[in-house]
Amino acid sequence: LRASLSVIQKETGFVNGLIVVLHDITEQEKIDRERREFVANVSHELRTPLTTMKSYLEALAEGAWQDKAIAPRFIEVIQTETERMIRLVNDLLQLSKLDSKDYKLNKSWVNFSEYFHKVIDRFELTKSENITFVRKIPKEAIFIEIDEDKITQVLDNIISNAIKYSPQGGKITFRVRELADEIIVSVSDEGVGIPKADLAKVFERFYRVDKARSRKLGGTGLGLAIAKEVVIAHGGTIWAESKEHKGTTIFFTLPLERDQKDDWYDV
Ligand code: ADP
User: Fold this and answer.
1) What are phi and psi of 35, to 5 degrees?
2) pTM for this entry
3) Which of 66, 103, 153, 180 has a Cα-to-Cα distance from 147 of 20 to 30 A?
4) How does the average pLDDT of the chain come out, rounded?
């Protein structure tokens, strides 16, 4: 907070008034600081894979390409890093779109139960055999108006994290609960968990509990930040609950907008 003072003086010299103007500069400063941090983070995140790729390419150029045992391994590293960079740039573009003011959701009515099953089915086909999926999704239809592509991205990010951080033989539970005016969707895993102090921070851009581990698993540190923006754009909320070494649950809500529907029926 910055204050400017003006003293109101009469010709006689007596002070008979005081104007205090308070400017709330903290908010603007916070935005500026966050923007600077974001740019620094992006630069760092891009430089890391580029530096790795450069040194592997140099080694190949200097003769490693002729070594049949080493060359394929080096090329694989370069490929993995390139793929992660592409993911990172795609995530950044996604966030920048979500940040822009004229951003619009492309909503349509879907039966959430059926839709959620379809999203999970896709992961069920590709997941490793030692992870079990448990679905606690109501049989009855739950109609809700969402941007299907965007919510699919939210679920993709949450589910791929649950798989990434699951131990061998772990169970992942998918739930949907229908309340009066919203649904609560959750994905629980039995993985490493998130320390209490980090629970809210994991939704911040580039925040990771364990940087090295996230990188090794191919993460960009933006998955949950994107999920948060999309859920908020839908009028919902997102949060995490976790017990270290026991598991994590990511919850998000989506409003049911029943009032609107009732209005239509009234007409
Ligand atoms: P990342 O690409 O690193 O996974 P996210 O934004 O998706 O980025 O997640 C941010 C961080 O939150 C992760 O790096 C990890 O530390 C933590 N995290 C997210 N989901 C889980 C989970 N299911 N179990 C444990 N930690 C998690």
Assistant:
1) -65, -45
2) 0.84
3) 180
4) 91
